[in-house]
Amino acid sequence: MNKMVSLPMYDVYRPDTQALWSALIPLLVAEGLNADGLDIAWPEAGLLSHWRDENLLLSQTCGYPLATQLPDVQLVGAFHYDVPGCDEYRYSSFLVARLEDAQSTLEDFFGRRAVCNSADSQSGFNALRKMVMPLARQGRFFSDVIFSGSHRRSLVALQQGSADLAAIDCVSWALFVRHEPDVLQNLIVIGQTLLTPGLPLITSSRATPEVLATLRRALRRLVTDPAYKAVREALFIAGFSELERREYAGIVAQQPAP
């Protein structure tokens, strides 16, 4: 039976992520899962290998890797988040710049520098290049694109002046507002990307239909039972939808050059 679990994508404040697992694991057991040997992982790197692990029971990935690099994992669904920029299971990214560019539009950043968390990120890279594609000249819009390794580091790059624009996942933005406001100092939202299906919850290709059904039942209970209201609200979780891969099919088409 698959035993590895993690929620690495919105782990801004570790105690809240731990509280979520403390709530979810008993629900999985109550729904019939044998939790013996269950291993809660906190992957800081090598996420693609983690998501591909045949022993993966439950994790959260990004829509772009799901559509382009994870053909064998099974999609469980996606949380709803109650923050600006989300609509049920869909989310968007905020276009973030320094306060000095508060009156600028996206078009004004032609020939300037972008910073993205990673080249396989839907929220930080793929959504942004879809936005600039109609504005590109001879296939280019930015003078340079650098990759920081995380949304937090992208925000720091903006503050330090090594880049001028970033696309930041709206849920991450809300978590930074709550837990790390210093990383948003002197920064401002100047636009927003289009809505796209949110971060997928996945299990491995080895998970049986019964295990998949168990995961979905437990997640539905997590988002509806009043006993877990505080746990949900700490991470802005407001619901859960079962989804099919076709929801993410449009992501693959978003591949213009930046």
What does this structure look like?
32% of the residues lie in helices and 21% in strands. The chain is α/β, with parallel strands linked by helices and 258 residues long. It folds into two domains: 4-81 and 198-253, 3-Layer(aba) Sandwich (D-Maltodextrin-Binding Protein, domain 2); 93-194, Periplasmic binding protein-like II (D-Maltodextrin-Binding Protein, domain 2, 3-Layer(aba) Sandwich), CATH 3.40.190. It has a six-stranded mixed sheet with strand order 2-1-3-12-4-13. The chain has a three-stranded antiparallel sheet with strand order 9-6-10. Strand 1 (4-5), helix 1 and strand 2 form a beta-alpha-beta unit. Helix 1 crosses helix 7. The longest helix has 17 residues, at 14-30. The model has no long low-confidence stretch (mean pLDDT 94).
Determine the CATH superfamily of the largest domain: Bordetella uptake gene, domain 1
What string, H for helix and E for strand, traces the elements in order? Answer: EHEHEHEEEEHEHEHEEEHHE
CATH class of the largest domain: Alpha Beta
- Please give the alpha-carbon distance between the first and last residues: 43 Å
Topology-level CATH name of the largest domain: D-Maltodextrin-Binding Protein, domain 2
The total number of structural domains is 2
Number of strands: 13
Query: Helix amount, in percent?
Result: 25-40%
Sheet of most strands: 6 strands, mixed
Poorly predicted tracts of residues: none
In what range is the share of β-strand residues? Answer: 15-25%
